[in-house]
Amino acid sequence: MTKPTPSFVSGALPLAGHTLEFQRNSTGLDQRGRAEHGDVFGFKLMGKNVAVVTGAEYNKLFYTETDNSLNIREVYSFLKATFGEVLFTAPKERYQNQRPLLQAIFSRQKMAEYAVAMQYEVQRWLDRLGEAGEVDISAAMLDVTRDVAGHAFIGPDYERELGEGFWGDYDAISRSIDPILPPTWPLPKFIRRDRAKERLNAALKPLIAKRRQNPEQYNDLITQVLAQPEKDGTIPTDDEIVRLFMGLLFAGHETTAGQAAWTVIQLLQHPDYLQRVQAEIDAVLAPGQAIDGGVLRNLEHVYWAIDETTRLKPSAAMQMRIVEQDLDLGEVVVPAGWLIKVSAATSHHNDEAFADPERYDPLRFSPERNEGKNTFNIIGFGGGMHKCTGMNFAKNEMAVVVALLFQQFDVELITQDPHVVTGVGANHPSAAIVRYRRKRQSEHAVVQQEAVAV
Ligand code: HEM
Fold this sequence. Notes:
Distance between the termini: 62 Å
Helix content: 40-55%
Mean pLDDT: 92
Strand order of the largest sheet: 1-2-8-5-3
Number of helices: 16
Largest sheet: 5 strands, mixed
Strand content: 5-15%
Bound molecules: protoporphyrin IX containing FE
CATH class of the largest domain: Mainly Alpha
Number of domains: 2
């Protein structure tokens, strides 16, 4: 006897199905689906059937079946027009060929160097703040994560090397991303995208040429890529390096900015826990001290706060795949041709995995409670083969922001209730004004450029 397919959540409109609700409030849609049907249910998106699964077991199946019966590449095909074939938008063999390179970029040695770049750029931001004032933390984190990415991946001279127009062109490209409209239509945003891509190619290729000629003078992402052959021994072409660089910026920039801003906001909304974080920072990090792996390891309350914010305010709130072969989920089967989705709205609020799941409670990640032990309960950084390669980079960057900000400033949240803004690349908080005042005893000189080893 053939098994049934997942039951559909209520509220489908004729023709449109659940498309409008998905665009307006996919969290509400997923939560209603789970309340009505449990851990597996369906909805209708632009004429397609989508299955939503919840909980560690199904999430694990989703990630381990990716590149087997589930296809990641076609889901992200709208990114191909923007960044070309790179990472998971490249064919499977090409992706597997690039994997050692990805691992090398985020090796332990490189992470130590990135920590220096992070401290330098975050401190530079804090020094620009002056003695007291107000700032929109959502916007500020976008700037800080740009500077960190530029410094970490291009080196300390990144502003001059990338040129003034770089981020304007990057924005034109990232704002053109559209999962629905055909990317070749002659729309103004696609024309702006193509012109920006030409300018970025023209800006980045000379940097690659310089590094090919004199690799010993540089220690950055491009030299790393040039020195590290792919699995089959080939060295990437200039076009591939540009694609990789842009792909990494896209994967890691707005995602980290949004989650860093939410981490600060949620700490300010929970003064009891912030007190613990403050005590930890004061004990672990002396003014002007370099933030190395040892310091980061001791900031455990900070990392639990980051994990709790990933759970409650994830930048990446869902991931989708196309089902290529029928997927048997026990009582139901998800047929080939459907889409399948994992959802933070359901998995991260699952009371079988998290005690009192609506509560902000970072201590749930402490070793005593260990609610994070099954990593498949959290989908915020993905899982399996395609799990975010930049996860430790992002978490360390957020830890450096929190540690230096609260070490040097008293901060108060003025916008009491920022909301989630849904973006194509990542979700982020709406404008969130914080008021700050420099702590009197702090002596936090900018980490000197000469000390920066990258
Ligand atoms: C808070 C920040 C971040 C979040 C929430 C995040 C989230 C994710 C998620 C959910 C995936 C898996 C996508 C899928 O399975 O469909 C992913 C993959 C990836 N992320 Fe991140 N990411 C973050 C930061 C970064 C950073 C900083 C970088 C690099 C600088 C980065 C590079 C990547 C790469 C290369 C992949 C693809 C891995 C693969 O296919 O093997 N991410 N990220």
